[in-house]
Amino acid sequence: MPAEVNGDVAVRPELNRSQARSLVFAALAVVIRGLKVEAVDEQQELYSDLGMDSLAFAQLLVELEGRLNVQLLDEDLLTIELVNVADLIDLVESILLSPEK
Amino acid sequence: MAGPERDPLLPTHWFNILHDRPQYVASALPRARLAGLENTAGHGLLLQQPFSLARQSFNTADRLIPIPDEVLDLYAQYRPTPLRRAVRLEERLDVNARIYYKYEGANLTGSHKLNTALAQAYYYARAGVKHIVTGTAAGQWGTALAYACQLMNLSCTVFMVRATLQQKPIRGDMMRLFGAVVYESPSDLTDVGRRVLKEDPAATGTQAVANAEALALAAEDGESRFAVGSGENSVLLHQTVIGQEAVSQMAQLNEFPDCVIACMGAGSNFGGVALPLLGAAEDRQRPLRLVAVESAACPKLTRGRYRYDLSDALGTTPITKVYSLGSTYVPPPVYAGGLRHHSAGPLCSAMYADGSLEAMAIDQQTSFRAGMLFCETEGILPAPESAHAVAGMIDVLSRHPREEDPLIVLVNISGHGLLDLAAYQRFAAGEIEPVTVDESSLSRSLSALEEFNQRITQPAEAV
């Protein structure tokens, strides 16, 4: 998946879905002004429920890049389409489990 | 294959003002309160732009961002662009000033738009996009993107505002020459176009509708994407080659401007020339006056409001805080089609809000008079948009006292007017009237803008 490691922080094998979830929720809190993270659940939709658009989506990916210390690649991201928070957590998990790391 | 030889003055990096002023990063307002979202369950989020471009719009870490080699080779075919002193214009105006101009009209497509079109086409092609769709007002952006797409083996579809395509059909011919498919907007190809035509079959079109049509077409398949020619931070970034060259070229002449003047559509030519000079002025700890010149028919800065707004008529673009006349405002069909966008981009809007730039509105007749004078004295016929910058500069110079030091001004001539000869001919024949705002359209649009803001911002701001 989309990743080039920027340094050696990268992936810890023990990082699991709950850690991916924490990363995603923390990034969402930065990008969506006034979001009450404790009220968000994985089935909530990014567009319909959280009101995100393509600009916020791009900002979220930049935020996740920083938190994951990776550089996401254009060709991997252009075709992904995410509907709900769970999709986003799946994406982060797949980055974390990337063999490049 | 080796590219063309690069001039030492050709910048190798873009200048990123967000490093110096991170407060200008645009944030989208959550759309949760926007009416119509009730029926959007299952709607997926998709990047319209390659992520490299999106990242550029948020980058606050790097003051200089490297220009890819492939783009530099293409820039080298027409850059650096000329910077000249307008000696004969100075004499004719008899002003206490030294006037310099930067000329961006000498490339094949005739305007500064090529600087970002090449960069964007490069990133879209590298990301695997096959087809780019866009909206264009005056046609400079559409022409530049069509050419850039041809170079990068991309298909290109352009929705061009009806008023300007009818004024200068040769713009459409140029785009087709480069392989693009061109539609007059509003068109019957999209829902939004059909809706506008149903309300008014003679609708002259706006950039907001053209963009909405382009977005609708781009959404039809996975290999197509929408691209935009102004307003976004990444687009302004690509244009900073203009200002960086100007800094070097003026340094060779032992000069630095007191004042930089450019016309303002959504802000790409203005930002392109002004931002690197602003950075250089701050490095030198000297003041610099920035003047944005807009069309009196579309005075988004001087009469607009700093509010959250959309940049397309479909309502799908991000909601950002901008100086706007409202996305439903229909400006009269002036020849400076590139200045007809209802709002300035977020970055230039933020600069206007914090006092970093001044604005003035110039009517069409005054701008053509200035364009003719520039042609007579300097041998370059400016595009109608650029003629606004010349007129604004003349206004600034006319107020500069004779007893003070000469004012050193730099004006950006963003494109040539050789495809606008019919308009200049009409001016010469006395057939061009001063055109100002359509007051009734403006009043309705501003009310809608306020209503939109009440609907979406109060809950978000209250958190």
Explained architecture:
The complex is a heterodimer of chains A (101) and B (463). Chain A contains 4 helices and no strands. By secondary structure, chain A is mainly alpha-helical. In chain A, helix 1 packs across helix 4. Chain B has 2 domains: 76-110 and 232-455, Rossmann fold, CATH 3.40.50.1100; 114-228, Rossmann fold, CATH 3.40.50. Chain B contains 17 helices and 14 strands. Chain B has helices spanning 17-20, 51-58, 69-75, 87-93, 114-127, 140-151, 162-167, 169-177, 191-199, 207-218, 233-252, 268-283, 346-353, 364-378, 384-398, 421-428, 439-462, and strands spanning 13-15, 64-66, 83-85, 97-103, 131-136, 155-161, 181-185, 224-226, 259-263, 289-295, 305-309, 320-324, 358-362, 407-413. A 6-stranded mixed β-sheet of chain B has the order 3-4-14-9-10-13, with helices on both faces. A 4-stranded parallel β-sheet of chain B has the order 7-6-5-8. Chain B starts with 12 loop residues before the first strand and ends with a helix. The relative contact order of chain B is 0.15. The model of chain B has no long low-confidence stretch (mean pLDDT 93).
Condensed summary:
The complex is a heterodimer of chains A (101) and B (463). Chain A has 101 residues and is mostly helical. Helices cover 46% and strands 0% of the residues of chain A.
